[in-house]
Amino acid sequence: MSITTEPKAPIKGLDKFFIGGEWVQPSSSDTIDVIEPATEQVYFQVAEAQDADVARAVTSAREAFDNGPWPKLTHAQRAEYLRAISSAVRERTDDVTQIWPRESGILYGVAQAMMGGIPDAYTYYADLAETFHFEEPATPTAGGNFGMIAREPVGVVGAIIPWNAPMTLIAYKLAPALLAGCTVVLKASPEAPGAPYIMAEIAEKVGLPAGVLNVLTADREVSETLVRDPRVDKIAFTGSTAAGKKIAGIMAERIGRYSLELGGKSAAVILDDADISSTAAALSGAECFLSGQVCSSLTRIVVPRSRHDEMVEALAGTFSQVRVGDPFDANSQMGPLAMQRQRDRVESYIEIGKSEGATLATGGGRPKDLDRGWFVEPTVFGNVDNSWRIAQEEIFGPVLSVLPAEDEEDAIRIANDTVYGLNAAVFTNDADRARDVAGRLRAGTVGHNNFRTDFGIGFGGFKQSGIGREGGVEGLHHYLENKTMIFEEKPSSFPK
Description:
Blueprint: E1 17-19, E2 22-24, E3 31-36, E4 41-47, H1 51-67, H2 75-91, H3 93-104, H4 108-115, H5 118-131, E5 135-138, E6 146-153, E7 156-160, H6 166-180, E8 183-188, H7 194-206, E9 213-217, H8 220-228, E10 234-238, H9 241-253, E11 257-261, E12 266-270, H10 276-288, E13 298-304, H11 308-320, H12 340-356, E14 359-362, E15 379-382, H13 389-392, E16 399-405, H14 408-416, E17 423-427, H15 431-438, E18 445-448, E19 466-467, H16 472-477, E20 480-487
Parallel strand pairs: 7-8, 7-10, 8-9, 10-11, 12-13, 12-17, 13-16, 15-16, 17-18
Antiparallel strand pairs: 1-2, 3-4, 5-6, 6-20, 11-19, 14-15
Helix pairs in contact: 1-8, 2-5, 2-6, 2-7, 3-4, 5-6, 10-11
């Protein structure tokens, strides 16, 4: 099989950072190789930020917030920039869909489909400029004749994004932050800096005031400089639970604001009336997305014991037929994992599953027809005990564990017996049963008869899956601070 590659990424300024509205020289000559996961070849190089570069970006964002025009604009004026960004993102669809598969292994067709909705996130928040109540009256209870609540921008935001879906995750951090009036330092993942650099080009194109958006790429150690800087008012982070815990601890030291979208080990609860064939097709199809490198993947399949073997057989049948290959091949149904260390991690968990006593129903190795690239076979384990590591720890790859349950109560107990609580699903032909079970599952999202998440409503998790929500109106609140004001009389400037 021929695996395609492009000689050059369609991005400018890869040897620089976007700070203060300009492309600036880094403080060092250090660079990061971005490796294409299907070929194991260097796709492009990007400048690697050091502490001095992060400090410079924060200085720029701080100056833009404290003394620049951006926070002083009306929400409607900022919304016009968001609409311009939306149009510019749509214009760069072809560039993003060339880069995305070469950074993280997503199928080209899936990247195209996802890019169709990303510009809408910016227009959604632009529309909130007219409908969201940034100021509301409040009845004073301790003196004064007129009270109000003003929702003001939190300040300088450090936005830290992962490598699996950067363009989507940028949108749901950047759009609400900009509408609120915040300024942003966007820290790109070393594995996937393409989308952040495209957003820097877009910021330049639409004429965002200097310092409103600053973009650089740094590894974890230098990224901590951004988190520790007291001039950063809020950190918005998507990534692992381990990194999220570190960020929360640092921010707690200075009472900084933060929102965290972290890991998951999400359960699909299969009730006794569910159709096994269609359920298996839905689960295996969803797990092919980004080769299972999705925090909200449904990887714990909880099924009545009497139907366990049927479920394992059905999943093995559908998963074993998945065509793994070149992300740009229209016949491929799943691409590679994003990087070598990710494949090593997945393979190590497959060995753990075998040693723990799980039944390997399909997969467990590397595709025999692919001699390069970080590919792995879709894998299904049966007879998994919920206490085992493959049932409790996030693998971040195409590995499904089927767990037998004695009855519905036991299934709910098993589903909730995890430190995570990001996503879940209930498979049943009865919507009322689905609603009952969904109400008892400790997860930020619960879908019916499929893998479902919805940033338009809101996305986030319970327990160690995070703090806060992204998307929807809830996603805007995290970029605002509430201020109570009490007056002797109603100001004439207050909206009627």
